[in-house]
Amino acid sequence: MAAHLLSHVASDLCIGRPRVLALPPSTPVAAALAALLAGADPFVFVDAEPASRGKKTAAATYVKVSVADILCYVCGDAGNLSDPAAALGRPVSAVGGGHGGVARRVDPQTSLLDAIDALLTDGCQALLVPLLHTRARKRNQNHHVVPSCDAAAADCCVLTREDIVRHLFGSISHFSPVAALTVDSLGLVRRDVHAVHADDDGIDAVPLLRRALSDGTAVAVVDDEDALVGEICPGVLASCDVEPVCAAFAALSAGDVMTYIDCSLSHAPPEFLVRSVRAQLKDRGLDAMAELMDTWDAASLPLSPSSSLSSSTSSDEESPLGRARRPRRMSSGSFGWRSTEDVVACHSGSSLVAVMAQALAHRVGYVWVVDETSGALVGVVRFADVLAVLREQIHPQALCR
């Protein structure tokens, strides 16, 4: 089994995975947002280095853009809050601003160990793996399968840290005794969490959310006694409409933002909360944001021919703007619909295998650590750190002990 685990390559983990959506840097933010809300994946990818290579050369690095990234882009700048329509009309390359997660393109035959090492590189959150296509060629009445690889990002699938951890979890017995040790003894409990109090302004959570996106966690929301009461999670935001949620961040407290998000996902925010948002926005001179709550439509911002989305077909059925008119689907990737109060938490004495099982069951890449007695927030366990611990064990000598 140890040899079998070590023999895996990146393409082995890509069977059945869909193509990613890759957008040119000139794509308007509104069009990227429409693609995110209409698609099944929680992120799109933007070429990070278009000027440094020829047009026919595949990019090696992409910026991963999610709904939460766009929310941070709009809410994190006073000018964007004052004129959100103009912000949504700018190129999607403006969203990253050096903070977006990096995705690196790797060869399909990259070994599992090298794939893990790439994901542990600073800033790398995902790998783009070219899909292997098959072409049938008739030869002497027999069909021979000839694999070929398209270099374009649109012909790739994505592997995240969660995907690798899930794969390794299937062979968790080979990581004994490390898997049975506590997360505290393994040094996996990070104390530098991103947290706000429920009474803090929602806008104060935006810089923390940007940092959480960079390290694959979320923003914890705590009460006056530092007990964990909820979170503002990129995964939950992936199912939200950006324009009203941006307005909520600009007008409400962090606790009320949680309520607004939960209500908007289940049915609709209560009218008194919507009126409160509008009143607060007008008091703060954000009239354009208040108007956008009712009138914004991603498809209303026209695309120029030079900024059209990359696609294998020009039909409305395949274009992100065409898909934006269909009902949104629940994400089939790392994120799904859940309440902001539905947090995944453990204790410092929880075993590594138990924490991994918790995170994978809830499809998140982190687990909060709380005090067993008081419920106070202690820290967080991240998949990036879990992967580093498992990587130390993945070599023939360790797995064959």
Automatic annotation (TrEMBL):
Identify the InterPro entries for this entry. Answer: AMPK_gamma/SDS23_families, CBS_dom, CBS_dom_sf
* Domain CBS positions: 339-397
Q: Which range is the signal sequence, renumbered to this chain? A: none
Q: What's in the GO CC field?
A: cytoplasm; nucleus
Matches recorded under Gene3D superfamilies: CBS-domain (3.10.580.10)
Short name of one Pfam family:
CBS
Q: Does the keyword Lyase apply?
A: no
Sequence ranges of Low complexity compositional bias: 303-314
Superkingdom as given in the UniProt entry:
Eukaryota
Q: Which SUPFAM superfamilies match?
A: CBS-domain pair
Keyword list, A-Z: CBS domain, Repeat
Keyword Nucleotide-binding recorded: no
Region annotation (Disordered) maps to 303-334
What protein name is recorded for this chain? Answer: CBS domain-containing protein
Organism name: Eragrostis curvula
Source organism phylogeny: Eukaryota, Viridiplantae, Streptophyta, Embryophyta, Tracheophyta
